[in-house]
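Lab notebook, bench 4. The sequencing result for the construct came back, and we need a structural model before the next group meeting so we can plan mutations. Quick request posted to the team channel:

Model the 3D structure of this chain.
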Amino acid sequence: MNYGLYLAASGTLTNLHRQEVLTNNLANANTVGFKPDMVIARQRLPERLESGVDIDPRRLLEQLGGGTSLMPTRLDLTQGQLEATSNDLDVAIEGEGFLVVRTGNGTGPQDIRLTRDGRMSLTAKGELVMTSTGMRVLNTADQPIRLDESQKVTIRSNGDVVQDGRIQATLQLVAPQDPGEVVKAGDNVFRHRSGGQIARRAANGRLLQRYVEQSAVNPITTLKDLVASVKSVQANIKMMQYHDHIMGQAVNTLGRVA
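Done. Here's the predicted structure in token form:
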């Protein structure tokens, strides 16, 4: 089999995946608290090392390498720009940290989600929830927060929620023990990669009331990378066509000579 064809195909698949990720990032350039994904690719090991086959390392194919191989996509946790709002229940996280929310009516640790979207509102029952999803925002004891709708709300930098001069609850601000185990779960929230409990620790960031964090996507650089990825796909496909043409010529020409 043509070795160059495989190398060009691996480059095509890698850049097609990169296009999908960059397109999704670009589509969320205006999503509050959005964190872009990063495509990680590495050079594949030669066949001798991947399969444990005893091949002379001085052979040509051994020296060429094995093309590219995709690694799990990782999050870019770069801080987004902070934008002022007029809503007392809006908070932005400056520095490290995530707010903790719970999905649906679940009570288990597998229902815990993390988010950087600090747009919050109160339900008819006075529960503090994410405005965009309705997920309940949790305090430091992983319990929902209830507030008096008639009272003004003050949120301190450490997460204390104050009404009428008294601390009603404290927003939980955490960071995952292993950021590599956290993946997107849709609705601008994050979950554990395996679906289990997220190992958390106290974060060293601070909360800013009446602010929200904008998307961390840089539209200019993302668009530039997307164009470069498209060109890489086109180049690899053209190389595959060259190899296909060469193989056709070899079969047709050598076949007639034989």
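The chain has two domains: 3-77+217-257, 82-213.
Will bring this to the meeting.
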